[in-house]
Amino acid sequence: MSSRRSRSSRHSSGARISDDQITDLVNKLQQLLPELRNNRSSDKVSPARVLQDTCNYIRNLHQEVDDLSERLSGLLETTDTTQAALIRNLLMQ
Amino acid sequence: MKMDHHIGLTSTHHGSIKTRFTHRFLYALKNLNKNKKPISYHKVKIAAYSSMASAVGSTRTWSRVMLRRIRRRQLRRASSVIFRRTIRRAKCIKNNGAKHQKNKVVSRNDEEDEGISKLRELVPGGEIMEFSSLLDESAHYIKCLNMQVQIMRNIADLLSSV
């Protein structure tokens, strides 16, 4: 009996964390997703939906990075370094 | 709780990641621009991701794994032999990690399981994370990707307006 209890307590403090903490993490993730962020009744969104939307959102962001990299590589070829330095200064302000 | 602190990036912390990313990325772009060779889209992309991962540093699993992947890619170019060894070792670790995780996940429905396994593929290092860390790291990764996209767009807009 005592050995079982100690095992379960080790679980909750170590590798396993409580359902409440998982729910909390899922809610935090949900707040970052544009499509689900403004959902007032947060408990109506299933964890499966949050996970699915998280995946889609990350894919979209990866795609945006791809597109912007393409755009930047094109722009850099037509811009000389003095202009790049100027922009650097502008951005650092 | 420790996790709360990690997930909710304070404005100053986030600000400093943003500043570090911008510095590193612009520096990388400047170096790319120095070489007279044409700049490939791939090089800009790698510069962006590695700038972001190094701006975050080694406190996060995803950034550590991302940096390791980028270094491995550079090694591949330097020596194909070393690369093959590294990959084999990495695959071993990856498989063990995934197996370990599968045993842990017990009471979830199929839809959730599908979402979790997809998320593991998308977040660098996701395969070796425990479920709660995966959620925590995903949130952080999304914040950083958002910031990265925003800065890249700003730079592109500025460059096209010159």
From TrEMBL, chain A:
One MF term in the entry's GO annotations: protein dimerization activity
**What UniProt keywords apply to this chain's record, in alphabetical order?**
Growth regulation, Nucleus, Transcription, Transcription regulation
| Keyword Transcription regulation belongs to the record | yes
For the biological process aspect of GO, one term held by this record is: regulation of growth
Name under which the protein is recorded: Basic helix-loop-helix transcription factor
Which Gene3D superfamilies has this protein been placed in? Helix-loop-helix DNA-binding domain (4.10.280.10)
Q: Where is this region: Disordered?
A: 1-20
- Which lineage ranks, top first, belong to the organism behind this chain? Eukaryota, Viridiplantae, Streptophyta, Embryophyta, Tracheophyta
UniProtKB/TrEMBL annotation, chain B:
> Where would you say this protein principally sits, based on its record?
nucleus
Q: Which InterPro entries match?
A: bHLH_AtIBH1-like, IBH1-like, IBH1_N
At the top level, the lineage of the source is Eukaryota
Q: Which is one Pfam family of this protein?
A: IBH1_N
A biological process from GO: regulation of DNA-templated transcription
Any idea where the IBH1-like N-terminal domain is? Answer: 16-73
Arranged from A to Z, the UniProt key words for this protein are: Nucleus, Transcription, Transcription regulation
Q: Where does it reside? A: Nucleus
> Under the cellular component aspect of Gene Ontology, which terms does the record hold?
nucleus
Which protein is depicted? Answer: IBH1-like N-terminal domain-containing protein
* Organism of provenance: Lithospermum erythrorhizon (Purple gromwell)
